[in-house]
Amino acid sequence: MAPDLKNPLKLLALDSDDLAVVSAHLQDAAVKVADMAYLPKEKRFAMLLDRFDWSAIAEGKVLRRRAGVHFERVESAHTRGLDLKQGQAALTLLAVEFAERNAPSGVISLYFSSGAAIQLEVECLEAALSDLGPEWPAEERPAHAED
């Protein structure tokens, strides 16, 4: 099967509704600790990940795509339950949320499997998600326990 590079996903988030769409596309993305970086001088947090392509399910396909996501105007970054020395440790990104504190500033929270999280204190919400390459077959469709 030839890769579909005609329609790579490119999203920009400037408010909570936009970020909810980005979060939906990032749900169940696989990411390594080594592929995350906080760049304080640039006020940026960025990561590379292998996102699960939920939109391909409608076509009966189970795919992943390499993607990059970055958050701008980041004042600080804090981690919980994340060992930054374990660069090859793999995590699953579950959700991304924004909580406004003193408009337009707030906190972006990235929630991972095993209770790990990253909180980004931001001047305002400015994030972007872009597919970086072709799709490939995923080993399996992610499953979540029913509550």
Description of the molecule:
There is one protein chain. With 147 residues, the protein is mainly β. The chain has one domain. Helix content is 7%, strand content 50%. The protein has one helix at 16-26; strands spanning 10-13, 29-32, 36-39, 44-52, 63-72, 74-80, 90-100, 106-112, 117-122, 127-137. A five-stranded antiparallel beta sheet has the order 1-10-5-4-3, covered by helices on one side. Strands 2-7-8-9-6 form a five-stranded antiparallel beta sheet. A hairpin with a 4-residue loop joins strand 8 (106-112) and strand 9. It is globular.
Low-confidence stretches: none
Tell me the radius of gyration. 15 Å
**Helicity, as a percent range:** under 10%
Q: What count of domains describes the coordinates?
A: 1
Output the number of helix runs: 1
Morphology = globular
**Overall pLDDT, averaged?**
91
Q: Biggest sheet: strands, sense, closure?
A: 5 strands, antiparallel
Order of secondary-structure elements: EHEEEEEEEEE
Kindly report the spatial arrangement of strands forming the biggest sheet. 1-10-5-4-3
Summing up helix and strand content along with how strands pair, one would put the structural category as mainly beta
Strand content: over 45%
